[in-house]
Each structure stands twice: as C-alpha cells, then as structure tokens.
Amino acid sequence: MNRAKRLRELLRRPGLLMAPGSFDAFSAKLVERAGFDAVYLSGGGSAGSLGYADYGLRTLTEKAIQLEGICNSLSIPLIADGEAGYGSAIHVRRMMREFEKAGAAGLHMEDQDLPRRCGHIGGKKLVSQQEFVNKIKAAVDSRTNPDFLLISRIDAIAVEGFDRAVERALAYIEAGVDVLFFEATESVEQLRKLPRLIPKPLLVNLVEGGKTPFLKAKDLEDMGYKIAIYPSSALFAAVHAMEQVLKELKRTGTTEGFKDRMSDFGHVYRDLAGWDQGMELIDKYGA
Prior knowledge:
With 287 residues, this protein is of the alpha/beta class. Helix content is 49%, strand content 13%. Helix 4 runs parallel beside helix 5, helix 5 (89-102) runs parallel beside helix 6 and helix 6 packs parallel to helix 8 (162-175). The mean pLDDT is 95.
C-alpha cells in the first residue's frame, strides 16, 4: 500500500491520529520506532537544521532533498510542511510534483503572504482568499496520486479574526482541500467550536509555548479532531539535552558523568543509521 493511501486509511479509523514532528531522518525514525502511525516534518525544525530561520528562506529544492532522505528512512506516512507553496500558483504545481516524488503522503500549505513566518508569532500577512483558492486549485489539478492528502493551513485567526477564518476555510473546502488546519487557535472555546462549524477533518497543531492551548490527545479526540501534530516536542527535548551535555563537557572536560543520559555508539550508528545493513552490502558486493 502506498503511504498516501495508508494515511487516508488511518484518517477513516476512529480516534485521533497523533503525528509527532521530526526535523531529520534520525528524529523521524525515532517517531516510527516509538509506535506512532505517522510522522510530521516540521518546517521550522527542518529549516533550522540547515541554518535558516522559519521565514521561508529555504528553497523548494533544499526542502525536497531533505524530504526525500527522510521519507526513504521510513515505512510510515509523512505529512510535510509546504509553507506558503514557495510562490504563486505555478510554484505550487512544482511543489506538489517534488513532494509527491520525494515520498510524502500529504502536505499542508498556508494562506500567508511572503515572506511567511512561524504561525505562533505576530506580524503575519495573508494573501487574498481568491489567491489562495487559486493555489489550492493548482495543487488539486497537479496531484498525480489521488490519495495524496492536501491540507489547508489557515493563518487568519490572528489577522482577520475567528469568524473570517471560518469563512476562508469554507471557501478552501469548495476549492478541493481534504483537511483543514487552523493555525494558532487562541482558546479552548475556539478549539471546541471548529469541529462543529467545519464539514471536513481537522488538524490541530500543538506547540509547547505556542498560542494554541496544549490539550491532551483524548480531549482533542472528544472534540472531533482527526490529526494532531507535535512539531517541536522532539526538537525542544533534543536541544535541551545537547545543551546539557555540552555544558558538562566544557565544565569537566569529559562526558563520563553524562553517559546514563546518552544513547550509545552502537544504537545511533549501527541501529539507527543502518551501519550493519551497509556492511552487509559491502560484504555481498565486495569492497
């Protein structure tokens, strides 16, 4: 079964699909090994891994190369961040081709204007409703795998207000999207209202320290949400752990006192990175 078809099958099942965020192949593999059925590729995290802030500075080519490597390391579906479509409607057509070719099972694209920015900080600007409808239509028309999931991210709550965001969402549904994603919902009351107003599956984005209330998965499921992404949880934990071990190394000149909080050489390189499989191929075909 192709992974896009698998993702749609998961959405048809009862309950909430939890998709923790990854920022590279290592973190994506860890999501799969933890038992999750899907993984999310964080736009901010994966851009940061190349040295870019989350302002849409990374090119589509850079993103597609990252995406392909991560998808090749997985067997579960991956949902990718398509940012603002990397330009106009014709750029969206190329994005769809590149993301499908790389192995993503779906993507979300937002109605921000360029330069776009993280959804949980201020100063966002939107394209017109009609311009984004045109982008959605371009994405739908250029989709070669009918199972590839198209998600519209709506950044309008912080810019135009809740009611206007709902109006935009209804227009995006008419244009052909499969799932709606209201970025930076501001209260539990807003979270409760949306499943009653939107006749499509809903995705909720949970960022520690972000604007959306960080509710438990069961509460979101009871409200009617179908997908929850956790884009930064693993990244924030990894950064904290790296800061701590580097401080220890600087302070003491060794990591000896930190070993009980570190993975070992064999787990990272032999197990996660696939060293043993590589050596098997070398032995099979000759050095």
